[in-house]
Amino acid sequence: MENAKKILDEQFDELVCSLQNVIRFNTEKSDPAPNAPFGTNVKQCLDYVLNWAKSFGFATYDCDGYAGHADFAGTGKEVLGILGHLDVVPAKQEEWRYPPYSAEIHDGKLFGRGAMDDKGPMIACLYATKALKEAGFVPSKTVRLIFGCDEESGMQCVEHYFSQMPYPTVAFSPDGDFPVINREKGIYQFDVVCGKLPHGVKITAGDRANVVPSLCTVTTVEPLTLKSPKVACEKTSDGYIYTATGKAAHGSTPDEGVNATHVLIELLDDIYRDNETLRFLEHSVRDTTGKKWGIALCDKESGSLTCNLGVLRTSDDGTLTATIDIRFPVTYNCKQIYELLRANTPKQFAIVERHVSEPLHVPSDSNLVTTLMDVYNSQMHTNLQPLAIGGGTYSRCLPNCVAFGPLFPHEEQTIHMPNELIMLKNLRAMAQLYLEAIYRLAK
Length: 443
Known about the structure:
The protein is an alpha+beta fold. The chain has helices spanning 2-10, 12-23, 40-55, 119-134, 156-164, 260-271, 276-285, 334-343, 367-380, 424-442, and strands spanning 59-63, 67-72, 79-85, 105-106, 109-111, 142-148, 170-173, 176-177, 181-184, 186-196, 202-205, 215-220, 231-235, 240-245, 298-299, 303-304, 306-314, 319-328, 350-357, 360-361, 387-389, 401-403, 406-407, 421-423.
């Protein structure tokens, strides 16, 4: 093990360079192409990573462009899976200090979309596995690094991959927080097809249900009296554009951001008091706890429900559709959430499921959790306990899997935000943690 640690440390600069190359692929989901179901850029990134892994001596497999894996063969039949993703949420370049796909390093920080979520951790795992191989480690379990390509947009990648490949015996996903996440809230993403907005009013906000929108625009034919310093107004040849800005954040932690829709919804509702759609948004949906909507839930295992209004779109006939992301406690299920929503939403407003996922709960005394906890606490000289989160990782897509890193306790959270970054000192530390974890779980 000491030799493997030394090799990994010596190859750290190479690891960083490889990560920069991977970040430079813009892997936002785009139109499908032959053998590239999530866009050509995503497929090119997958090809790059698999070819790089093959050059390390690992056997690779491309599952129709949906996902791929790299194997460090073991002596037995069991498989240790390491499941991460190469796709990213969209990045608005104007909100970034440095271009989101330039992978620039400043003051010991590597900036770029995907640096933490999830390219950095997966490249760290790849190099940790490489170091073990070069040190002569012979695993009992095959170490299988699985690279998905659609984690941020519905996880079709792993659904297709595991229709072709067996589940690993045991697995972890480097796509959460340290020390270990063994409880993940359920996910319920859906559209509410509301009624019509007032004549001549259109609202547009957000791109993804699981991101707090940082920009919201309202267009009108006639001028409005929106008395707020948070709203900018621009007159155009067609009417008026009102813009509110906020702060992006992960949809599972909506209170860490500032939802740009909230201020405009409140102001519009005050003007158009008889509009049913605006009243519903203001008096039910805008509350991030779900209490005003009548859907607030809580349990001791994972905490309280959260609600994020992620996307607003207005159709040509004036109908507004709201796309919403709910994270609910682990002792509830998706059916119960739907029933609560339906009972507390106007009957004439349709509820259309988009992406739903039941909660994850791997017992804290399982061998997987206790091993990873021991790895973390031993190396970091801590005495922490497993965590529960609202975020959804790949862990819930397969049995006997938990999230292990990459975010260290009390570190800045930049996932899904402008100026996403990974600190190089943390990248080095997590690579060593992944090396020890792979060794312990695969030996």
